[in-house]
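Possible race condition, two jobs.
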Amino acid sequence: MKITLMQPAGLVVSPAFSHVAVVPPGATTIYVGGQNGIDAVGALVSADVAEQSLRAVENARVALESAGAALDDVVSWTVLIHQDADLRAAYGAVASQLARTGAPPLVTAALVAGLGVPGALIEVSAVAAVIRG
């Protein structure tokens, strides 16, 4: 039994994302709600999108680990980034943390007019799957 990430023929092949994830029956699915670049007391770590991005991914990592998963177990990311933020700076800051062997996870990204946390420039959520055995 394994989790399969696919880049089917006929769709663009990207090193940054896959198009399809197949999670077999019996795998544990973990959902991580939106994480911003905030510290443990809810304060923004910086006004800089790169620093916020690093912390948002770190917060997602902490959430995943609390459920027995890791960043490598993520099958799908959703990324919301403020329309005025620098997307390249945000991605550049976290790319090395998200790199992994094999097919990359699915990614949905959107530029938005604002986020629920005042001053937040990025929010990430994730779906992970783990085969326990």
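Job #2 (started ~2 s after job #1):
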Amino acid sequence: MHRRRIVQGVAATVTAALLPSSARTVAATDSATDYASAFWSPADPANYTVPSHPSERRVDRVIIHVAQQLFTPTAGIFRNPAQKVSAHYVVRSGDGLVAQCVREKDIAWHAGNWDWNTRSIGIEHEGWVDRPEFFTDVMYRRSAVLTADICARHGIPRDREHIVGHHEVPGSDHTDPGVLWDWDRYLLLVAAAG
């Protein structure tokens, strides 16, 4: 076993123990996450696609979402096979905790556009588009570090052409992350994180 995986396993166990009971039920002890600071909260396999040739999957976008829901219920939606929706990550508002729900090699069903799903990583954020109190400093910072890490690992430019809102996906009828999402601040934080 690689030393990094052992350290991640210990970190995941400690993180799970420190979580409030409302979130702890979501956390699993499996540390097989793509982002080292995330804890594993798996979506139901009925809510994402495992590509037949994962090595051929090319990711060129990060799509920013706002869940219109709290953190734990969002992860719960992804675990419900009847929902037919998922995202790779969920970021909590109060402390920036990151849960990974779908491995990056797999295709999460988050964009509402199959082509964009196949070439993107989706990040949900706890909160509502019209409630800026959910867009906390720690959430912006932790999400930006996550996005910078994804961009570095996949060779994605850290700009507004490649880090987009759900509302910018062709054919989308969504408004998230909404007009209250501070794109200038977010992109500065993504740039500073790398």
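The mean pLDDT is 88.
Logs attached separately.
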